[in-house]
Design brief:
mainly alpha
Length: about 170
């Protein structure tokens, strides 16, 4: 029974990683093609910052009329992040505890980046330095909550699937 439970938890973590991968790809494609930022809550912040940086380079100075020419460097960097995440998801679906641990650390760092952006947005809004809409801050808060849910899923998978230490009889 314990083995069945371990497989379920590891598969849940793998499904979460596949979901993160899909959300990251969709976020990047929409931002690069339509110059419209959406946040599917569970996508990686690393790729969003890379996309925003290259989107700015394509806008000023005037970029190419074809969106994919300006977006190609960003999409190549995004592909590296997405490929690494996909490898971790595949290994997690094959019951690799190490891949879930690595994914947990990567996603935790990504969550800290989102949390920093969220706190900065609140600070800017309260301080009155720049305008930050309450809707955008609310979406950022939901993203942080969704990331924390993902961290708990992966942490639970690591904890449950780890071998238990037993006392040595004397």
């Amino acid at each position: 029974m314990a083995t069945f439970r371990n497989v379920d938890v590891l598969k849940t973590a793998a499904i979460w990683l596949y979901l993160v991968t899909a959300a990251t790809v969709i976020n990047s494609l929409i931002l690069n093609k339509y110059h419209r930022f959406i946040d599917l809550l569970v996508g990686l912040s690393f790729t969003q910052y890379v996309d925003a940086m290259f989107l700015g380079l394509g806008v000023e100075p005037e970029g190419s009329p074809d969106w994919y020419v300006d977006a190609l460097p960003a999409l190549i960097l995004d592909a590296l992040f997405v490929s690494a995440l996909l490898v971790l998801a595949v290994k997690a679906s094959h019951r690799s505890r190490t891949s879930v641990r690595v994914a947990l650390w990567v996603y935790s760092v990504d969550t800290l980046v989102f949390l920093f952006g969220f706190v900065t947005s609140i600070w800017v809004r309260v301080n009155g330095t720049f305008y930050a809409s309450a809707t955008a801050i609310g979406r950022q808060g939901l993203t942080v909550v969704a990331h924390i849910v993902g961290i708990f899923i992966m942490f639970h998978a690591v904890r449950v699937s780890s071998p238990k230490t037993q006392a040595v009889p004397q």
